[in-house]
Structures are given as C-alpha cells and as structure tokens.
TrEMBL record:
Family: Belongs to the ATPase B chain family.
Protein name, as recorded: ATP synthase subunit b
Subunit structure comment from the entry: F-type ATPases have 2 components, F(1) - the catalytic core - and F(0) - the membrane proton channel. F(1) has five subunits: alpha(3), beta(3), gamma(1), delta(1), epsilon(1). F(0) has three main subunits: a(1), b(2) and c(10-14). The alpha and beta chains form an alternating ring which encloses part of the gamma chain. F(1) is attached to F(0) by a central stalk formed by the gamma and epsilon chains, while a peripheral stalk is formed by the delta and b chains.
NCBIfam families xrefs: ATP_synt_b, PRK09173.1
Protein's gene: atpF
Length: 161
C-alpha cells in the first residue's frame, strides 16, 4: 500500500483537528464569543440607559425652556403694563402742567391788564390835573388856586384808593 500526498494531507488534517480539540480551542472560541456577546449586550444596555437619560434631560430642558418662555412673556407683559401706566401718568402730568401754565398765564395777563388800566388811569389823572392846573393858573388867582388844587388832589386820592 502506497500512501500518496492526499492521504498524508488527510492525516495532517485529522491530527490538526485532534490537536485543536485537545487544546480546547472550540471552548475558548465559544467562551471568547460569549464574552464578546455579553460585552455587546452590556454596551447596548448602557446605550439604552444613556438614551433614556438623554431623553429625560431633554424633557427637563424643554420644560425649563417653556417655563423660561412663560416667565419672559410675563415680564414683557408687566413691562408693557408699566410702560402704559407711566405713559398715562406722564400724559396726565403734562395735561396738569399745561393747565397750570395756562391758568398762570391767564392770571399774569389779567394782572398786566389791571396794571395797564391803572397806569392809563394814573396818566389820565396826571394829565387832567396838569390841564386843570394850567387852566386854573390862567383864570384864577393864587388863593383860589391853592384851595382848588388841594381839593382836587384829595378827591383824586380818595377815588384811587
């Protein structure tokens, strides 16, 4: 019986498989694959936990954002109310100021009219006294002049007061 190369290749293959089984390589490969599968399961569980945590954090931030938006809206509304109130107050104060200024102006105008009337009266009285004095000087003697001037001046003073 002559053995050819195929037989020796077959014997080598059988010895190789026997050596692999003897050294428990399939168990080590299975153990390695199991460890890797467990590691992948752990990573998937960790990824799932992190995803749930991220969703929780996202929901929390969205809630906080909504609260911040609501607070900002209330601040804007309060600012608008305050601005409207300040505008109304400023308008009222302006109207009161204008009314006071108008009243003061009217009062000053009335006082100026009164002063002008009094000045015209005083000028008219002075002019009348001067004219009367001139006429009396020409027509009346000294004693009568003194009596008339004193009487007229007294009468004018009484009327002015």
């Amino acid at each position: 019986m002559q053995f050819d190369a195929t037989f020796f290749a077959f014997v080598g293959l059988v010895l190789f498989f026997a050596l692999i089984i003897y050294l428990k390589v399939p168990g080590m490969v299975a153990k390695s694959l199991d460890e890797r599968a467990d590691k992948i399961r752990g990573e998937l569980a960790e990824a799932k936990r992190l995803r749930e945590e991220a969703q929780h954090v996202l929901a929390e931030y969205q809630r906080k954002r909504k609260e911040a938006e609501a607070e900002a809206a209330s601040i804007v509304a309060a600012a608008e109310r305050e601005a409207a109130m300040l505008t109304a107050e400023a308008k009222q104060k302006t109207e009161e100021f204008v009314a006071r200024r108008n009243a003061l102006s009217e009062q000053k105008i009335k006082q100026a009219e009164t002063d002008a009337i009094n000045a015209v009266r005083a000028a008219a009285v002075d002019l009348a006294v001067a004219a009367a004095e001139t006429i009396l000087v020409k027509k009346v003697d000294a004693a009568v002049q003194d009596d008339l001037i004193k009487g007229a001046v007294g009468e004018v003073k009484a009327r002015l007061q």
